Amino acid sequence: MSNAPRYASRIARMKASEIRELLKLIDRPEVISFAGGIPDPELFPAEAAREAYAAALRDPAVALQYGVSEGHAALRAWIAAEMRRDGVPAGPDNILITAGSQQGLDFLGKALLSPGDTVLCEYPTYLGALQAFSAYEPRYDQLRPGGNRTPASYIGRAAKAGGAVKALYLVPDFANPTGLTLGAGERADVLRLAEELGALVIEDAAYRALRFSGVASPSLQALDVAAAGDLERSRVVYLGTFSKTVAPGMRVGWVCAPAALIAKLTLLNQASALHVSSINQIAMLKLVERGYEARIADARTHYRRKREALLDALERYGRGLAWTIPEGGLFSWLTLPEGVDAAKLLERALSEVRVAFVPGAAFHPDGSGTNTLRLSYSLPTTERIEEGVWRLSRLL
Ligand code: PMP
Prior knowledge:
The protein has helices at residues 9-12, 18-23, 46-56, 60-63, 73-85, 100-112, 127-134, 157-160, 184-197, 220-228, 259-272, 278-289, 292-317, 342-353, 382-395; strands at residues 32-33, 95-98, 118-121, 139-144, 153-154, 165-170, 200-204, 236-241, 253-256, 322-323, 331-335, 355-356, 358-359, 372-376. It is α/β, with parallel strands linked by helices. It folds into 2 domains: 10-44 and 294-395, Aspartate Aminotransferase, domain 1, CATH 3.90.1150.10; 47-291, 3-Layer(aba) Sandwich (Aspartate Aminotransferase, domain 2), CATH 3.40.640.10. The strands form 3 sheets. The protein has an 8-stranded mixed β-sheet with strand order 2-9-8-7-6-3-4-5, with helices on both faces. Strands 10-11-14-13 form a 4-stranded antiparallel β-sheet, with helices on one face. A two-stranded parallel ribbon has the order 1-12. α3 crosses α12 (278-289), α6 crosses α11 (259-272) and α13 (292-317) runs parallel beside α15. The structure holds 4'-deoxy-4'-aminopyridoxal-5'-phosphate. The site of 4'-deoxy-4'-aminopyridoxal-5'-phosphate has 14 residues, from α6.
């Protein structure tokens, strides 16, 4: 008899993507990589972090001890105040500290999705959200946020097959992977659709603080709270993170939601990892108490410069291509001429011109979008960004 594990059904749906395997090979200096959607380590507050951890360790009985599953009280209070500044009247009971917003996605999948339930998301959408939700065996359906002329809608195939629409998942600001931001009309429309469906809205705000240009729209949660009159009656769950503004390796993010939902998610956290590392939470609080605004301002300036380099290079060399113009965040989304397969292009780009990117099909639950790709400008220098776009244009 085989002694291979007899996996649960959810595991059958989880597989390492070929693209990820391919992209493991790009860690060579000659490759110009637009692939990794990760923050630039140049921005990491190394010295301040050293001081913050030293300060946290002055009280080892707290910093090195177990903590409560909700999260470090003073950090929750700090985040609640930050949410209030962004138009959401939150208190500490509305905040759960998670190991990055990624853990929040997992908890929400666990709390909301039974096998066969439907999640509406944009096509393309954040791959990590699909990975988190897929463990709970949902169906996906394409959400179209609507806007000025068309109402928000969804394709409806999965929902008609019988699954309840439990959640709408969106990255409204500077989305991963497209770099696009929902306008005011689209936001109102998404909330209307969620209300019609009796579904929750999961607002993934991973990049919200990183705006370079244009005017910020209120968050979906702020809009919904304004309409409902109270956060406790809102159907929007907000996922925040310090990964893009401070440091992703500390793994500190949060969920902001009605207190009753936070209580359920807290039980899941207790069962999963008990809580996020005490010392990391305390050090994060010390870091954000001292100059969060300045850190965000630095990050904005830094990424804005890189975005300009990418857009300038695309203007110069990108004949025949269409691309998005992000007002913040780390990504632009490229559409190749019809019939050009971005996955095949990646193989040639790596071997012939030493450029990496992520082919777009990976971000589509149905594998469509084969002639699209994601460019991240966060890591290469401005010179390498220009050189990389030039190399790609030669190949095309
Ligand atoms: N949401 C989006 C849209 C992201 O791009 C990322 C990071 N790639 C995450 C969530 C997860 O980030 P973290 O867990 O570090 O907060």
